Amino acid sequence: MTPTDNAARWHLPYIDVPAPEEMAAWDRAASADYGLREEILMENASREALHVLHAELAASVTGTGTNTGANNVAPGANTNTPRPASSPFSFTGLRVLLFMGGGNNGGDAAALARHLHDAGAEVLVLHTRPLGGYRGAAGYHVRLAKRCGVPFRPAGAWPRSLPDPRWLAPRVVVDGLLGTGFTGALREREAALVAAINELADRAFVLALDIPSGLGGLTGRPRPDAVRAHATVTFEAAKPGQVLPEAAPYTGRLHVRPIGIPHAVRARHPASYRMLDDTCLAALPATTPCMHKGTAGHVLVVGGSEGLTGAPLLAGLGALRGGAGLVTVACPGGLAAEVKAATPDVMTLPLGERRAWDPAALPGLLALAARCNALVIGPGMGRSPEAAEVLSTLLALPGRPPAVIDADGLFPLAEGLVSLDLVRETDIVTPHPGEMARLAGLTTADVQRGRAATARAFAARCTGVLVLKGAGSLVTRRDRPITIIPLAAPTLAVAGSGDVLSGLAGALLAQGAPPEVAACLAAYLHAKAGQLLLHDYPARGNTPSEIADAIPRARKEHLPCC
Prior knowledge:
UDP-N-acetylmuramoyl-L-alanine:D-glutamate ligase, alpha/beta, elongated, 11-stranded mixed sheet, Rossmann fold, 7-stranded parallel sheet, 20 helices
């Protein structure tokens, strides 16, 4: 099979997730290069917001609700919702309070207010900027809404800005204060209005336009507070901060709606982030009636040390549950009996007779490594100088198979005991935030505050594929977009979970997946297995081996025939 054929076989359906500044560039290019007026884009956005609001309220009336599924992205989020005429639900008489900020997000709110007013709703728009100060497309829609009879009042000091007490009990609140371009921290007046919206959320449905005000469009974190919406409608494409799991309490159900940005704009200005959804699991290798263990891939797990024999076993179990036909654990010879006694499912390669790594036993390890399809190096390996020598020799082996480097395999790379230059384009490194901090020379808190920036900086130094683990794992490599895995599950927060992931990635490498694809699919399927376990372990308490056992079940849920 040629590289082109293999790439086609392993194609992943990536979804563009532009950074806020990239989305702004799309808007500018649509207007400047293609003549699509900003007023039209704003009109399209407000119409889509109307459709989302109608669908959400109609669902609440009928009791059907909206299941958020794998993350906070609502099912069908990339398709148009039914138009109001298709449902018996009506906006007539509905009291809707809209908060209008001073930028384009406020213009979206003004246009939406006009649509709601025309549909028979009772609306009131509270604006933070003098109406004469709105310019451009926002100014156009403010003036149009006023001519159509939409009432506006200054936001002023909440709640004295309200014309009468009944507006303290609206049916719907629309957050149009701040858009995805918001940076820094909320100012005092903005913070007060965010707090007011959140107070109203206890008795009203809150819809955020584009992004909940106060939420970082890149990080998904409040700055320092943010609107807690029941649903968010974002325009043309989701932004990174909206699809990260930590954003879900603020975005509620996330609806992604097109507003008419030409595809040519997106092609000429590619996004630097992307994400995957459940459709990616269709790329997992299919079974065939004639396959046998030799055609399903042989994974060699190199790990284990005194007191740490469970880690390579969990990696081996992850590889088997990921579909590998053969799994061998190479470990110090004095520990091989413990490893073999723990499970008959994996083979062992005893190296020497000691209970510690012995570089003198390397020839046997190198011979088997050259015959295997993928390596997983590091689980439970320990941090001895001998372990570092084994890692260095393996990585330097000419013609070796692709490797997943995890856990103790990352320590000598971080400490400079083994050169990062030995990591090849075919390899995957899988640090958790603490390991990433050591690799990057940062604190764990620094990594968590700037996960994407940390990932990009490391990818510039290392030719391999990086999986920065955590809630919403990030996958990237040099000069490539960051792929967001928009999933999280508390069941994965247990020691040994990462070992299972490394084995799963090794299994996919052994079955022929390109390293970036193997990393993305492993991280996604691992998270889906964790979510599946929430049914039986809603308060956690599962073991890492149960995560491995859930991998085939998670995959089965997405087989076309099932």
